[in-house]
TrEMBL record:
GO molecular function (one): glycosyltransferase activity
Assigned keywords, A-Z: Glycosyltransferase, Transferase
Keyword Transferase in record: yes
Residues covered by the Phosphoribosyltransferase domain: 15-157
Protein name as catalogued: Phosphoribosyltransferase
Keyword Transferase attached: yes
Pfam (any one): Pribosyltran
Length: 170
């Protein structure tokens, strides 16, 4: 059996399909009547989702939470870490926040960001393109559920430049 034949099946999201997915995700949020004041992107994959949702939902107030967890394919730090600059809780105070990410895999990253928002914001909900069945966080808005590894269009190709020391040790 060749390596290709023994490799696990993968979910592949193309740029075109991402356009469809993000629009349908926005429609789920709108149809639910949720009117976010802020879209909070979980960097890096959530930046694409947050930008698309911000445009589709007419939310100009976008914030970013830089969270490091994955270090490679199915390789991660022991716990996710919020990297500086950490969002200012005062900027989020009393707001309706839509947390945007590309995937709820283990749920640890989303839990970290949700917990950060707890008690500060009026309401926090999560929107993801993909949710895995073993995620500890059940997102309110999910475009597709899968148990496969996902090839995202923004991370399928290797970096143009390899930089050392980009992952902080826990």
């Amino acid at each position: 059996m060749s390596a290709a034949e023994s490799a696990p099946e993968r979910e592949t999201l193309t740029w075109e399909l991402f356009g469809t997915a993000s629009r349908e995700l926005a429609e789920m949020v709108a149809d639910d009547g949720y009117r976010a004041d802020i879209v909070l992107a979980i960097a890096r994959g959530g930046l694409f989702v947050a930008g698309a949702l911000g445009y589709a939902l007419d939310v100009k107030n976008l914030h970013v939470a830089n969270v490091e967890f994955y270090t490679g394919v199915d390789e991660r730090l022991p716990v996710p870490i919020m990297l500086p600059p950490v969002p200012n809780a005062l900027d989020l105070s009393g707001a309706k926040v839509l947390v945007a990410d590309d995937v709820a895999d283990t749920g640890a990253t989303l839990k970290l960001v949700r917990d950060f928002c707890a008690g500060v914001v009026a309401d926090v909900r999560c929107a993801v393109v993909y949710e895995k069945p073993h995620s500890t966080v059940e997102c309110e808005y999910v475009w597709r559920r899968t148990d496969r590894w996902i090839n995202f269009p923004w991370s399928t190709e290797p970096p143009v430049v390899q930089r050392e020391g980009q992952v902080l040790d826990a």
